[in-house]
Amino acid sequence: MAAAPEGPPDAGAQPAKQDPAIETAEEAKEPPEADINELCKDMFSKMATYLTGELTATSEDYKLLENMNKLTSLKYLEMKDIAINISRNLKDLNQKYADLQPYLEQINLIEEQVAALEQAAYKLDAYSKKLEAKYKKLEKR
CA 120 to CA 126: how far, in whole Å? Predict the structure, then answer.
């Protein structure tokens, strides 16, 4: 018995004239084994480079955040010192104002007395003018 050829029955025959609108399918062939290994090595190398870049970028982001946190912490410490100084100065000013309060009250009392004295002087001036006018009137008689 003769062995039958493997594959489709018309595989060895040349196709007749092909229609340009009809596409012919070609058998998908796997690349040789050495190329697959080389491509896998290339893919893993590029993936490792990509992941290294991503991890480096993430690491740099965390370093930046750490530096920003340190600077913020220092800024808050400076602001705390400033607030403490302001509080201390405000207490000093309040104490000085409390020390000056009796003198300020004396000044207000003196101001009231001066105003009362000024009113008395105006009344005395008006009375003296009135008295002078009466004296002149009596002198003319």
Answer: 10
Q: Give tens-digit pLDDT for 89-104.
A: 999 999 999 999 999 9
CA distance 52 to 60: 12
Percent of the chain with pLDDT over 70: 82
Sign of torsion over alpha carbons 6, 12, 17, 18: positive
Cα–Cα dist 66/82, whole Å: 24
Say yes or no to pLDDT of 44 above 50.
Answer: yes
Which runs of consecutive H residues, i.e. helices, occur in the chain? 33-140
Q: Please tell me the pTM assigned to this model.
A: 0.49
Q: Which of 6, 29, 24, 4 is nearest to 14 (CA)?
A: 24
Report how far apart, in Å, the C-alpha atoms of 98 and of each of 92, 101, 102, 106, 111 are: 10, 5, 8, 14, 20
